[in-house]
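Box 3.1 A note on notation
Throughout this textbook, protein chains are presented in two layers. The first layer is the amino acid sequence; the second is a token string describing backbone geometry. Keep the layers aligned when reading.
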Amino acid sequence: MLNNRKYTDAEIKEICKNVVLIYDSREKNNKHILDWCSYKNRVEVSKEKLDYGDYTFKVKAIPELGIHHDLDFRNEIVVERKNGWDELSQNFLKNRARFCEELAMCKANMYILVEEPWTNLFQGKYRSQYNNRAFISSLQTFENRYDVTFKCFKKEEIATYIFTLFYYYLRERLK
């Protein structure tokens, strides 16, 4: 429920049609996500600087439903995207202090999405010399210490997950 108002199912549908996917202005190699939004699903996108995370969303104003200004959810839910285990291992090995600082300052629910299967991590199939047992231990520690969630997807699935994560988060907030 937003604006201390209970919305009908039809109103919720209308509000959800006004979702705008926000991506960080420093985000790279995300053409597959932008293509999914633009060409396949007609989801509006906005390039903005985010203090943490790579993706979040907002809802455009709908005055007739009592939403008189854009509703920004960057302080509620964000996605940090990693293109694979090697990129994430660099966060743990070379940039750990900065990575910890970013996670600690994040006020939102953070999902860290890795574009590579879990099995590659479990079997040590990545270029980094980071021992897979230590890597898994770091993942579990970070999940508990910083209340983040790690999930893995194929590259072609990640845009769908990002959008549905935000869509259903919003739906639940509106009920």
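Residues 9-174 form a domain with the Rossmann fold fold (CATH 3.40.50.10130). The chain has one domain: 9-174.
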